[in-house]
Amino acid sequence: MAARTDTAHATEAADAALTREVVDLIASIVSRYHEEYEAAAAQYGLTGAQARVLALLAREPLPMRRIAEQLKCEPSNVTGIVDRLEARGLVERRPDPADRRVKVAAATEAGAQTADRLRSGLTFAREPLAGLSAQERRALRDLLRRMLDMPAG
Amino acid sequence: MAARTDTAHATEAADAALTREVVDLIASIVSRYHEEYEAAAAQYGLTGAQARVLALLAREPLPMRRIAEQLKCEPSNVTGIVDRLEARGLVERRPDPADRRVKVAAATEAGAQTADRLRSGLTFAREPLAGLSAQERRALRDLLRRMLDMPAG
DNA sequence: TATTGTTATACTCTATAACTATA
DNA sequence: TATAGTTATAGAGTATAACAATA
C-alpha cells in the first residue's frame, strides 16, 4: 500500500460528507414533491395513482397497456384505476378501429380541466425555482441532466 | 398596459421553458429514486413502507407514534408494518420503563444488517454524484438548499 | 398461437372509529 | 380526562393467474 498524506484522507472524508449531504437533499426533495403531489390530488378527491393516470391522458389518449407501461405496473391494475376515473366522468374508454382488442382511454373535457388545475396547483419546484436567476437555473439543469446521465442537449 | 419589447417577451418565454425543464428533470429524479428504492427493498422481500420503517429503526429505536409521525401516516398503520417486520425477526417491540403505555420498536441485529445492505445497494444519486467534481457538488448542494428554503448553512 | 383487456384472488398500505391499558 | 397502541373495517394499489375476445 502506498503511503498517503493526511490531506488526502481529509479530502476524501469531506467529499464523502458532501456527497451524502447532496443525497440527503435529494431525498428531501423527493419527499416534498410526493407530499405536494398527493395533497394536490386529494384536493380534487383523487389518489396519487388516479392523478398520474389523468395527467397522462390529458396529454394524449392511451391504450390500457400503454398506461401500465408508463406507470410501471401490471395492466390488470390499470383497469380499476380507469374504472374509478370513468365513474367520475373524468376519463372515457374508446374502441380502437384498427384493433378491436384495444381500448383507448382518453380524458374527457372535465378530466382535462381537472388535470390542468391540478398541474397549476403544483407550486413546489416551480415556486422556489423562480427565486433562482436564469443562470442558476441553467446550472441546476445541467447538473441534474448529468445526474440522470442525459446528453448535454 | 405598458408596451414592452419583443425581447422582454422572448426572455420570459425562455425563462418559463427553462423552469419547466428543471421541474421535469426533478420529476424524473423523483421517479428514478422511487423505482430504485422499491427495487432494492424488493430484493430483501420488503415493501417500500417496510424498508422505510426498518431504515428509521436502524438509526434509533422509536415509539410507535414517532414512527407514524416520520411516515406521516396514522399510528394504526404502523401496527401492521411493524407486525410484519417483527414476524420476520427484523424488528422487536420493547416496553418503555418510563411509560408503560409506550412500545418502543427497535431493529434487531438481523434488521440492522438488512438495513445496512439495503442502504449500500442504493446507488442512484450516490453513483452519478461521484461523476461530479467537488465544486459541482457544492454548487448543486447550494442550489438544492435554496430550493428547499434552507439556510445557507 | 399470441395479444389486449378483464376478472378473481390475495396481500399491503391507508384512514377512520372504537377499544384497552395506562397516565 | 387524555394519551399510546391496538383492533375492526373499508377503500385503494399491487402482483399473479386464468379467462374472453380478437389478431
UniProtKB/TrEMBL annotation, chains A, B:
Domain HTH marR-type: 15-149
SMART domains xref list: HTH_MARR
Domain of life: Bacteria
PROSITE patterns: HTH_MARR_1, HTH_MARR_2
SUPFAM superfamilies tied to this protein: Winged helix' DNA-binding domain
Keyword entries, A-Z: DNA-binding, Transcription, Transcription regulation
Keyword Nucleotide-binding: no
Name of this protein: MarR family transcriptional regulator
